[in-house]
Structure formats: C-alpha cells, structure tokens
Amino acid sequence: MKRVFIDGSAGTTGLRIHERLASRSDISLMLLPEEKRKDEKARRDAINSADVVFLCLPDDAAREAVGFCDNPNTVIIDTSTAHRTNPNWVYGFPELGGFRDKIRQSKRIANPGCHASGFLSLATPLVEMGLLRKDVRLSCFSLTGFSGGGKKMIAEYDGQTSQNPYCSGRLYGLGQTHKHLPEMSKIAGLANEPVFMPVVVPSYSGMEVMIPLSAGDVKCSKSDIAGAYDEYYNRKLGNCGIVRYAENLSEFVSDKEGFLPSVALSGRDDMLVGVVGNEDRFVLISLFDNLGKGASGAAIQNMNIAIGAAETEGLIIG
Fold this sequence. Notes:
This protein has ten helices and 13 strands. The chain is of the alpha/beta class. The strands form two sheets. The protein has a seven-stranded mixed beta sheet. A six-stranded parallel beta sheet has the order 2-1-3-4-6-5, with helices on both faces. The chain is globular.
C-alpha cells in the first residue's frame, strides 16, 4: 500500500484528489490535523515519509515544499505553475510524445495547467507529425468553469451566476501574459506563444478549448487533422483511452440545436478532441473538466503511472 500526502488538501484541487483517492484500497492517505496543516515540521515529516506527495499550493509555497524533501524515493507531483517548464521536472501529460515513460521513471512530475492541457492536446500531435510548422502563429480560445479560479473565485460566484457580471462570460488575461503561456509553447515545440483568450463562464466546471485554423495558413486539411488525431490518440499503442479523438464530436455532447457546451464532460477525468468546420475553415476542439483532466484527474493519472497502478484507477471515465 502506497502512502500518499496531499500538501494543500483544503484547496479545490486537493479536495478533488482526496475525493478520488479516499476509497482506494491500494492507497493510505496521510492526514494532518487542522492545527498542523501549516506547521513546517509536520509537513516536512509527512513529505519525507510519503511514497507520493501532491503539492496543491501556490507557486512559492510549492517550491518551498520541494525543498523540504530529503527522501530520494518520494515522488512529488506539483499541481502549481512552479515547475512546468523546469528541465529537471517531467511534464505530466502522458499521452504526448515520450512523457509516459519519463513519468514512470521520474520522482518530480509537473502537472499541466488546465488551459494548457486543452491547447497541447490539439497542437502537440500536429507539430510532432509535421502538420503544423513550429513557427506557426496560432490563436486559442478557452472557456472554463469558475472553479478553475480556486476558492476565492468560487466564493465570488456563489449564488451570483444570474447577476451581472457573473451571468456572462468574462474574458481575462487581457495583457497576453497568462501563466499557462510558457508551457503551451514550450511543450508543443512552438516558436511563438499563441494569442490566447481565456473566458470564465458561469458554470462550476467544464472546459472547452478551441484553436481556429484556415487551410491556407497551415500544412494540412481538416481531413488530415482528423486522421492524425485518430492515429495519435485512438490507435497509438499504450494510450489508455483517457484522451480520445471523436470523429463526430456532436454525437457525443452537442444538443439538438447544434450547440457544443463547455460543461459536457463536467465531473469526469477524460478528454475528447475533435475538429469541426469545413475544408477551408475549421476549429480544433478539446473538451474536458478543468478539475478533471485539467487538474486533479491528471494528477492521479500521473500518480498511477509512477506507482505502477492501472492508469485509469480511481478515475471517472465516460
């Protein structure tokens, strides 16, 4: 049985990880009493006696917590932004080129950002397969549930989703400095960061990430992309079905009026990717839960790989 400690278990991501792990017979959750939750010695002892540690902390606190660890056998999975572009850490998106084997062998795993997960699921395979130039300039739209903003944003929206301004989508990151941008370009192997437009919508969870393309601007057609995603996600040896290409995305999640809701995969830990449009103008789409494959679900998937468990163990897959 593996001993697991969640440092920052009171936050949104930590709570979801705890919820997913609580009933597992192969996991022993290490819990600190409330009065010890911020005690350095108690945290240090817990980190060094755990087989796996999830850091669900702000960036600076996560860096500090890593410094507490002297046990060379402890696997640390950091859900903050702190280590995602650090070359000494493995990026925790197993479905993308080569990361699964690296995660299996690593003691330091950086969990991806939620917006970044959607962008990378769409862009990275096409760059790897030569269908997108590395110097291409992309745009990316992303709709996210307000739980992605943590407890503070959840409190702001609580009971207010029918009132202005909370009843509408709210664009943010207006200065093109969103914290996920560095990992989006680096992990995808792109020379340029995308023009990024994240929008918080008045739903608790769910995420829909979109990259619009014109055939004249890229090396591929809509059909080429569909075939590439099918090969990369559905046919690649070793993929476990957490990320899947949907040939007709609307059959899975669209309502009768043709709308594709960002809440389609709320409460789940998997992800659907697809492409819609026509052969001249098309949109790449990734659908998932910002708390699932965008955060806690991805962290548990990474833990499963690191400890040799079934990759989907403890996850909710549609």
